Amino acid sequence: MLAQSNNRASVRNSILASLSLRDLAAIGGFLEPIILKERMVLHEPRRQVDYVYFIESSVSSLRIVAAGSILETAVVGYRGAVGASFLLGAHLPIHQSAVLFPGSALRIRVDDLRRVVNERPQIRGHLGRYVQALLMHSAQTGLCGVRHDLEQRLACWLCLASDAFDGAVLPVTHDYLSAVLGLRRAGVTETLIRFEEQGLIRKKRGVLQIDERKRLQQRACSCYSIISNAYVSAEDMSAAHQAESLC
To answer: In which domain, by residue range, is 82 found?
Structure first.
């Protein structure tokens, strides 16, 4: 799809946008556009991964599924790629990957991506830096769940989801937040009401709109800055490597 592109202007995914034009052309011929619908399952636990999805305008949820319950460990948006971690090893996924906010992505078969990164090792480097940030995200989420209170965790999630979606209007319900964060629905509802009374958010039917992002971020626990900085560092390192390759 992108093999004939002479620039990165039309590429919305941060990983792809960080590639050199030659690397982008090498991988672009294998990329296939796909519409991601809400609740669409991209990967199932302990099943073979066929595609890696470079998110363009959607958000996917990585979650542990057990005994009828789910616990989210990370959200993946335009900065990331669902399934990228499986490129670095032959293990089956332990997470379920499901679409949280609908949108679009560019997908590539895992076998094709393996061949491309073997021929273009710089691509592996970009993916590896993102995967390290994602691992930090998942690990920090686990710590957050046992160390921080409901208000901090909820503010943190809203800020991270907003970053991943690159938008302030999030199509998410109280029930979903309660389920994936392992919190009582009543507690989630009460906290969101307080946020709204304080002018941080507005609740509409089926969506939450963030009105005061900086103030909401101040309510979040330290996990937000740790996770956010991990992704920023990965992007900065990729940009630095790209600059070196042009010298």
So the answer is: 1-120
